[in-house]
Amino acid sequence: MKIVSYNVNGIKARLPRLLEYLDEQKPDIVCLQELKSSDETFPEADVRGAGYGAVWHGQKGFNGVAVLARGVDPVERRRGLAGEDEDLHSRYLECDVGGLVVASIYLPNGNPRPGPKFDYKLRWIERLRERARDLLAEEVPTVLAGDYNVIPNDDDTFSVRAMADDALMQPESRGGYRALLAQGWTDALRTRRPKGGVWTFWDYQAGAWQRDAGFRIDHLLLSPAVADRLVEAGVDKEYRGREKASDHAPTWVRLR
DNA sequence: ATGGCTTAGTTCCTAAGA
What we know:
- This protein has 256 residues and is α+β, with helices and mostly antiparallel strands.
- 27% of the residues lie in helices and 27% in strands.
- The strands form three sheets. A six-stranded mixed sheet has the order 3-4-2-1-14-13.
C-alpha cells in the first residue's frame, strides 16, 4: 500500500492537481497539509467523487490538515495536540484507517527567528513528542506523516549557507526532531536514501525549481511494526513541475 | 537585498509561507 504526505498549499487552488494525482497514482492513504480552507469549504464532493473518504480539520486562510483513504472513511481519533489550550491552529489530525493509525501533521514554520513564532514551533514539537510517545506505548501500527518544517541534516538541503539562519534548520528544531526519532520512529525516506540529496520542497521564488534548489522537510515517520513493512520510500517529484503546482511534492512510502 | 513568488482574505493591498 502507498501512503502519501502532500502539502497542497491551498486545496481550492490545487484541486485539479490533487484529483489528477489521486487518479494517476491511486494512493491508499493521503495526508494533506495547508488546506487553507475552512471546514465548510473543504471540497468533500470532489474528493468523494475521486473514490476517497476523508476527515479534515480546516481553518480559514491558513493551516488545515486532512486524511484521505481510498474506498474507506478514515475514523477520527484526535484533532489538535494537548498542552496549550490557547493554540487554535489546525495542524494535527489523527485517524484510524483499517487498524493503521495515520496522523497528518503541519508543524509550524517558526520564522522569523528569534521570536514568538520560533518559540511556538519548539513548544509544538515538544507537544507532538508527547503524543508520539503515547502512540508508541499503545503499540498500534502508526504513521506520522506531514510537513515537519525541519531540515534534519546538512545533506537534506541544496545549500546549508542559504538556509543557515532559517528556523527550518536551527539546532533547536533539529534537536526536537531527533528526540522524536529517538523514541523509536523511523524516518522512512532517510532510511532508503541515507546519503541525502532528496528534496520535497522547492520555493516558488528565485527559480528554485529550475535550479533544483530544494530541501527535505516532508517526512513519514513509522512506528517499529510499520517500519518492518517498509518496501520503498520516495518523492513524486514530477508533480512539482506541473502547471499550478504546489511548492511541495507528494512524498510517500510503500508498505507490505 | 527582509527582496525574489503564490495563495487567500480583509482583495486592487496585506499576511503568511519557507
